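User: Sequence recovery, please. Input:
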């Protein structure tokens, strides 16, 4: 199958992606250093915003980017699809169209040559470097999307009515900035100080993105190397308890690779899947419907 070196629209070529991702990792290091330095000035409101914004934007990725836009695990009202896209964008994981293409390529070429972030077929002989490649180094290399996923673009943009948020550009960056400013405004109003507002941006914005982004990336690395193999799949995907609990159910990765269309990843009674619980609540409220679950004799979708 033909491989192309850059996205054909939106200016999202490999060079721009590397620069963008490198900038994000510089911000990550600076944010961690700032969090440590200003820890004595941190108040409860800042930690609350870290958790609250983390859950909102994290679910934008797990329920929105992943289970809805990528795998079509349920149907929902148009306004809710936009909300999911906005929340996911605020998590600083890159444009929706890029995320969907990458993840679809991962499933289609899982642990083969064109898998974007596999620790199994990583270009290094060292296991540690392979792990780091799957976790974040793949973001700094030449990403090569697959031409067949142009059809995914068409389907995706039909859902979001060709929204500018889905592509890199001013609107996409504006949503990211809003996601950073909201906790700053809330913290500023609460503390009535400029320093309180800045710490709100730090904890509810930057550090929130750092932690929850790395939880998401951990699915690529940890969940293909460490954990249990509940199902016999063609890859090394694994169910990892830590990421199952703290990554909103995404850590039940072996189950997900067995039933990628399923809105529920934690298929055992003890496998906590916060994203699925939220989907069930939304279904009861009539916001989502046609929620897909595994059926006998069906392995993918």
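Assistant: Recovered sequence (301 residues):
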């Amino acid at each position: 199958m033909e491989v192309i070196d850059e996205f054909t629209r939106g200016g999202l070529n490999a060079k721009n992606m590397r620069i963008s991702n490198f900038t994000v990792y510089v911000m990550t290091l600076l944010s961690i250093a700032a969090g440590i330095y200003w820890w004595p000035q941190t108040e409860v409101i800042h930690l609350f915003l870290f958790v609250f914004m983390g859950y909102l934007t994290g679910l934008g990725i797990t329920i929105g980017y992943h289970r809805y836009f990528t795998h079509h695990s349920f149907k929902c009202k148009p306004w809710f699809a936009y909300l999911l896209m906005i929340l996911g964008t605020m998590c600083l994981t890159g444009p929706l169209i890029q995320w969907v293409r990458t993840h679809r390529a991962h499933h289609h070429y899982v642990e083969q040559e064109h898998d974007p972030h596999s620790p199994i077929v990583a270009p290094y002989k060292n296991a540690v470097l392979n792990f780091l490649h799957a976790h974040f180094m793949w973001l700094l290399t030449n990403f090569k999307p697959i031409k067949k996923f142009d059809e995914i673009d068409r389907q995706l943009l039909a859902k979001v009515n060709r929204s500018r948020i889905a592509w890199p550009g001013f609107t996409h960056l504006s949503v990211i900035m809003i996601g950073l400013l909201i906790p700053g405004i809330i913290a500023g109003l609460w503390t009535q100080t400029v320093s309180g507002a800045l710490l709100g941006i730090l904890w509810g914005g930057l550090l929130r993105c750092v932690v929850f982004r790395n939880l998401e990336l951990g699915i690529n690395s940890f969940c293909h190397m460490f954990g249990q193999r509940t199902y016999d799949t063609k890859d090394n995907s694994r169910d990892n308890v830590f990421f199952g609990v703290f990554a909103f159910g995404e850590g039940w990765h072996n189950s997900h690779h067995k039933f990628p269309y399923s809105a529920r990843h934690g298929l055992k009674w003890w496998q906590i899947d916060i994203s699925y619980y939220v989907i069930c609540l939304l279904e009861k409220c009539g916001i989502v419907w046609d929620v897909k679950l595994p059926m006998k004799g069906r392995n993918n979708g």
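Residues 14-60+74-224 form one domain.
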